[in-house]
Write a structure and sequence with these properties.
By secondary structure, the protein is mainly alpha-helical. 68% of the residues lie in helices and 0% in strands.
Length: 90
């Protein structure tokens, strides 16, 4: 068995991040509408993309890019839904 390369380790950490996010969501330990869930998904997808430097797979690359795009979309929606504080009339 060959030793793991650095990109394999990064990919395993990315996989762990995605799976941990999903596990915590399903266990009601992480809110779906918070920022931690999409951030874990983005970090995981980036790690998996990095792992593809060791052996490219188009289907996996497309899936991870979509995962990142959807997570960024969710973060943008959360940001836009936050109530804005107005200055008192002066």
């Amino acid at each position: 068995m060959n030793a793991l390369q650095w990109f394999d380790v990064v990919g395993l950490l990315g996989t762990t991040a995605v799976l941990l996010a999903y596990l915590l969501l399903q266990a009601d330990r992480l809110p779906a509408h918070g920022v931690v869930y999409p951030l874990l998904n983005i970090a995981g997808a980036v790690g998996i993309l990095v792992s593809l430097t060791g052996g490219f797979n188009l289907a996996v690359a497309i899936l991870q890019l979509a995962w990142i795009a959807i997570s960024l979309y969710g973060l943008a929606r959360r940001r836009n839904k936050r109530p804005r504080h107005r200055s008192p009339p002066g």
